[in-house]
């Protein structure tokens, strides 16, 4: 909504030196959003004056075009030229070449002298053209930014103007005025008018407001007015499509009357292109009062006016010259010939006010906002009228708006108002809201005394009556958004000033911060991220086959794996809740690899869904709207599947990008196992790695991960090669998955870092020959047990079978690192610990040193 400041000053006490920025700053305090500032004079600089054509000499050109070589006086006759500069003739008569032909000798025109700058940075200077030096330009409306007309130059006499030669054109057309533009939210339709903005400015500044509607006295309705019938009854949306219709007629209008410059300037500054006097008057009243009007050529009407719904298949050619097929829901204005307008949206071409119109029928009506909005959307026909009608207008000022239009047509077009005044319909009942005067203080947190609440609501325009402990507030007719007490509370806070509401930080609720599980889960995620993995979040929906392949590591033969089936899945292919994180995690890996990301390491922490033996779903026999019984609640709880959190990771490609002289290592089974062990160490749990099996993993490169007590909690290794090939995944893609809740249950409350010893370590190696069926992990555990407290770490670094090793046996080489916390170990002490470890391995596994 653009607000010309000089227009606003008629109804609000805006200081004479206030700028558009100043007005916007005030309006922001009452909740209006600033949008822009408009100053036409910013794009017009230099000498722009009224000139009079003294001579006009047509000169045909070789290209078939005829130009006019003119002499134009730009100072009053007998006066001296005060302007100086290149191209300015001291005599005050300029030689100008003009290609337009809509003027004659003696006409007064707009002259842009050398040195002037027009919109678009169009600079005027003397230039040689068609054998003459043209020292200026006679301008069209489009060249000055006054409109779209470019068929000829501006002839001031055609606009009813006869200014003195040399008059400043910027002043003549009121181009020094400025406008402030605000964004109006849909619930504040009253602000789509100068009337509404002036009222808001008065609220913001505490100054007086003059209601333009109160300055108009509308005559009483009589039986001599145009016949109007409201035939919509109760409407199709529960309310009549039109509940008030005011009609007036103005006769004897001068068709040649032009829109005065002051009105055209205001409309242009408001963002409305001037058209003709009658159209401009209707737009002017709508902008001033917020009441949309429509003017009909009264001589083109057939019989009386009826407001009704459109007939099926009925058509109407609207003012935009488009033939529209109407819907039976459309509210139309009709006469005996049929529909002549879409009510509240756009009029019809058949009764349009034209250049020859001398009798005008003025429509000022109040329509149902929902009906107008649906019609506007149905026909994709936005207009300034529909913008206001679909948000709601003040039903009380329909007669004042019609009278204001009558006054302007009489004043500017020489018309005569007909005696008849039509005002039919039943005005809506005002909205009455009961308000506890202490409620605003409770909701906002500011002490608003009862007297202050009454003062603010009364200043808003509401009628406030004392009803004991409550206030009965009758909303003003222009405020359709005031329906409930909370609406009034918002107005109290807004009008008292948002700046008066203190900023109070909420008090943090008491507690110890994150829970133990939350701390551990975050530590796990941080550990994996620090190891170079990227966290992802996948959908929990999978197919039945994916659950079966990646779910239980040892499914019973023929047994049905229990899983949660969705009643309304987003896709029939993915109609089950996941029992494992791996399917969608691996799909994310595949998608990234297919799009050029060849080296991928991802992880996810999330819930899986493991139903028990209880029935899923909710009881169907419980009534709606009442609290379920304890038995029902217990049944519902029993039907909720277990949702433990898992953590899973996947690796494809290489551990690093290749570089000059560097070939990165490809991911293999070691990487998912290492990541799983890192998860355990992050929460203080040493997971045990043993050879394992899983139907989705490589049969020889799969590990089962267990807690210290032997409980299996996960799997890690490389995926099944055949599945990787079918899924178009990189070979040797690895993955791991852990039951994170089970790992956290075994974790300590706090992870305490082991102190670092300042004494050197002593490292010794041992190679043990054992039978092929002996598990290396078991031998490693035995060595750790036998070495005692001095052992810091034992690691397998080689497995060998061949020459020097008996058939059916293998050699396992381990590195043992010893360190004492309080002294430097001697070689004998380290050797003694190693011998104790190998002795225990020989006892348990038949190990023999090589």
What does this structure look like?
By secondary structure, the protein is α+β, with helices and mostly antiparallel strands. It folds into 6 domains: 2-39 and 178-210, Phenylalanyl-tRNA Synthetase, Chain B, domain 1 (2-Layer Sandwich), CATH 3.30.56.10; 42-172, Beta Barrel (OB fold (Dihydrolipoamide Acetyltransferase, E2P)); 228-425, Phenylalanyl-trna Synthetase, Chain B, domain 3 (Phenylalanyl-tRNA Synthetase, Chain B, domain 3), CATH 3.50.40; 432-500, Phenylalanyl-tRNA Synthetase, Chain B, domain 1 (2-Layer Sandwich), CATH 3.30.56; 516-608 and 643-745, Bira Bifunctional Protein, Domain 2 (BirA Bifunctional Protein, domain 2, 2-Layer Sandwich), CATH 3.30.930.10; 762-849, 2-Layer Sandwich (Alpha-Beta Plaits), CATH 3.30.70. It has 21 helices and 39 strands. The strands form 11 sheets. The chain has a 7-stranded mixed sheet with strand order 27-30-31-35-34-33-32, with helices on both faces. A 5-stranded antiparallel sheet has the order 5-4-3-6-11, with no helix packed on it. The longest helix is centred in the C-terminal third of the chain and has 19 residues, at 827-845. The chain is elongated. Residues 554-559 have low confidence and may be disordered.
Topology (SSEs and partners):
Blueprint (H helix, E strand, L loop, with lengths): L1 E3 H4 L11 H9 L4 E6 L9 E13 L5 E8 L19 E6 L9 E5 L4 E2 L3 E2 L3 E3 L2 E3 L2 E2 L30 H4 L6 E5 L10 H12 L22 E3 L11 E10 L9 H9 L7 H13 L4 E4 L7 E5 L5 E3 L5 E3 L5 E5 L2 E5 L3 E2 L12 E8 L1 H11 L4 H6 L8 H16 L2 E10 L6 E4 L3 H6 L5 H11 L2 E5 L2 E5 L10 H12 L19 H15 L3 E2 L5 E2 L1 H7 L25 E2 L4 H13 L5 E8 L22 H10 L5 E8 L17 H13 L5 E4 L5 E10 L5 E8 L1 H6 L7 E6 H6 L16 E10 L4 H12 L3 E10 L8 E10 L8 H19 L2 E2 L1
Parallel strand pairs: 13-16, 27-30
Antiparallel strand pairs: 1-12, 2-12, 3-4, 3-6, 4-5, 6-11, 7-8, 9-10, 14-22, 14-23, 15-22, 16-19, 17-18, 19-20, 20-21, 24-26, 25-26, 28-29, 30-31, 31-35, 32-33, 33-34, 34-35, 36-38, 36-39, 37-38
